[in-house]
Every structure is written in C-alpha cells, then in structure tokens.
C-alpha cells in the first residue's frame, strides 16, 4: 500500500477553481502536453496552465476543432493524436522526442463518454479502456525520455470516483461475454489509478512523479442531450427544469472547479516529493475502505485500498504491455 495516501490539508476546498490553485505559481519555461486539452475540463486545464506561464501542446484527434477551441490562448499549439491508434501515438511521441524538448507536465485527460452499445477500437479493445488507459499507457511510456529530461516531471491521469467500485475484468477486458457500460467506464477509471501507482513506483527515482486526479462530477451548463437528461436527473445532477446542479461539497462541480484538482496535480508545490496517489478536491484524498452505496445525494469518491493495490498495479502494467506488443 502506498504510504502517502493521506490528506495534506491544503488551503483549498471543493469549491476552489484552477485559478485559485495556481495563484502565485510560475510555470514559465515549462512545457505541458494535455490530451483532449481543447474541450471542457481539458480546455480549462490548458487555459490555467498557460495563464501561469506554461507552454501547452494540445493533443487532439480532430485538430481543426481543437485549434478553434483554443484560438486566442497564448503559447498553445495543437498536434494530432488518436489514442486508439498505436501508430498515431507513436508518431506523436516520435515528433516530440525527436525535437529534444522535455515534457514537464503530461496531463492524460482525453476520454470517451460511455454509451449503451459496446464499441471497440480497430484492434478489438473496448473503447473506454482503449482511450482512457491503453492509449495513455502507450503515450506515457513513449514520452519517458522527454519526461526524464525535464528533471522533475509530473504525469496526471484523469480518473473518477468510479475507480472506487471499478474492478478489472482480467479474463474479459473487452466485455466479450456481455457489455455493461457502467462497469466498462469504472474499469477504465480503476485502470487509471493502478497505472498511476505503478508508474510512480517505477520512475520516481528518475524524477517522474505520477498522480491520478478525480475532478468531481462535471457535466457542464447544458443544454443536455435528451438521452442523458433523464440519467442526469436520476443522479441529482440536474433539477426538474434541466438546470445543472452545482454542489461542490457533494462532488458536483463547475468546469473551473473540476479542473482545480487536475492542475493541482500538474503544478502545485504541495505535492513536491510525493507521488503515486489519488487526488480529490485539490488534495490527496482520504483512504476510506468502508462500503458506501452510490446515491444521488452521496457520490462516494474517496480512495480505497483496492484501487491502489500495488499487485494489481504491476499486473495491469504487464497486461497492458502484452496488449500493445
């Protein structure tokens, strides 16, 4: 079990924003890569990092849409990256490492919304696992030379409170025996945390520290698609009029509040010297192994021992290498 999974008692609250977390932090001369850094949480992370002085590369599948979304931001460039395509991941990493530039911050943010039907990538892997975990696993490993060259780099992988109840289906990662969209999403988010644990164990001595960050439940201000509105209402995320419910202490946040924990992991000096931990509300989350049901009024999202299990973390790393071989 990791020895650092305990709150640091930072001055931040669930309502703190990315601007609050980076106040007084100077990122001049730092280079960051943010996957999906043009949409929702990713765009706010890009904006916050550049506002603090960092140079940000937004890695996106649709470069035209990404360029339009970040137009007007200082020191932002857009490069093509499809996390479900190994050749695209290799090409992005080769361009970067070939340039000789270090990566001071890598934010593994891109993900896909789960749907009712099983979707597979071109290799036959379930899409949420492929995008959120396998693609970022491949990208991070390929960028290790640039991360090491930074002389103190951070890798932040965006996860979810779903990691708390998301097991890894070791014998059926791709749901060939029956698809459950919630279980698939939760598996991908558990994988994000386990990846963080093993990445930090392997490379902390090289100056590469890893964090898994839970942003809270962030659905944006709407309007919401009719197919999702009913689900959001059942979860207490929208009211009877379809308006988004914001309650940071219950984990229901604005984009600016959700991005706070991501940039906390990316750049806050509060995390200097530690890694391999799960973050929540701009702090290291409490470790809580109590069984807690999921309800509309209570969305359990603290860490538990299962999501940080070092044996599972090593096993997932080995399995991921095999899947990408």
What would you note in describing this structure?
- This protein is α/β, with parallel strands linked by helices and 325 residues long.
- The protein has a single domain, classed as NAD(P)-binding Rossmann-like Domain (Rossmann fold), CATH 3.40.50.720.
- It has ten helices and eight strands.
- Strands 3-2-1-4-5-6-7-8 form an eight-stranded mixed β-sheet, with helices on both faces.
- Helix 4 runs parallel beside helix 5 and helix 7 crosses helix 10.
- The longest helix has 23 residues.
- The mean pLDDT is 92.
Q: Assign the CATH superfamily.
A: NAD(P)-binding Rossmann-like Domain
Mean pLDDT equals 92
**What percent of residues adopt helix (DSSP H or I)?**
25-40%
Shape call: globular
- The name of the CATH architecture is 3-Layer(aba) Sandwich
Work out the radius of gyration. Answer: 18 Å
Which regions contain 5 or more consecutive residues with pLDDT less than 50?
A: none
Domains counted in the coordinates: how many?
1
Quick one: how many beta strands? 8
The DSSP helix count reads 10
| CATH fold-type name | Rossmann fold
Order of helices and strands: HEHEHEHEHHEHEHHEEH
Give the quaternary arrangement of the chains. Answer: single chain
Largest sheet: 8 strands, mixed
Strand content is 5-15%
Strand order of the largest sheet: 3-2-1-4-5-6-7-8
Distance between the termini: 29 Å
The CATH class label is Alpha Beta
Helix-strand category: alpha/beta
